[in-house]
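From the methods appendix. Each design record in this collection lists the discretized structure first, followed by the designed amino acid sequence. Records were kept in a plain field format so they could be parsed without special tools. The example shown here is representative of the layout used throughout.

RECORD:
C-ALPHA CELLS (100 positions):
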C-alpha cells in the first residue's frame, strides 16, 4: 500500500515537472494570476478563462500588451515577446488543444 502511494507520488511529480510553467508566467504573471489578485482570471480555472478565451488569442494578447484595468501593460514583463506572452496565456488557461 505504502509502495503504491510512493509510485503515484513519483508519477505525479514527473508529470508536474514535464508541464513546468513558462518562465514568463513565473516571473511576470504568477504574482496576480495564481490567486486572482484584482479579479484577474485564475491559473487553470476554466470558469474564469472561458469568457476571456471566446475573444480569441489575438485579442487577449492585445489586452496584455496594452494593459487592462488592474493589469499593467505586459503584465510585469513589458519586454516579453508576443510568443512568450502567448505561451503564458495558454499555460494559465489550461492545457487542452482547444486553447492552442
Ligand atoms: C498586477 C497584476 C497582474 C499581472 C502581473 C498580470 N495580470 Fe493579467 N490580469 C490582471 C487583471 C486584474 C485582469 C483582469 C482585467 C479585467 O478584465 O478587468 C487580467 C486579465 C488578463 C487576461 C484577460 C484579458 C482580457 O481581455 O480578458 C489575460 C490574457 C492576462 N491577464 C494575461 C496575463 C499575462 C500573460 C501576464 C504575464 C505576462 C499577466 N496577465 C500579468 C492582473 C495581472
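DESIGN:
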Amino acid at each position: 500500500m505504502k509502495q503504491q502511494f510512493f509510485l503515484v507520488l513519483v508519477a505525479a511529480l514527473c508529470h508536474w515537472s514535464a508541464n513546468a510553467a513558462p518562465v514568463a508566467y513565473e516571473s511576470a504573471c504568477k504574482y496576480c494570476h495564481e490567486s486572482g489578485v484584482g479579479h484577474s482570471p485564475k491559473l487553470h480555472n476554466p470558469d474564469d478563462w472561458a469568457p476571456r478565451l471566446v475573444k480569441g488569442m489575438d485579442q487577449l494578447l492585445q489586452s496584455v500588451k496594452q494593459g487592462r484595468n488592474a493589469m499593467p501593460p505586459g503584465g510585469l514583463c513589458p519586454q516579453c515577446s508576443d510568443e512568450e506572452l502567448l505561451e503564458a496565456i495558454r499555460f494559465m488557461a489550461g492545457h487542452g488543444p482547444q486553447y492552442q
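APPENDIX NOTE: The chain has one domain: 22-99.
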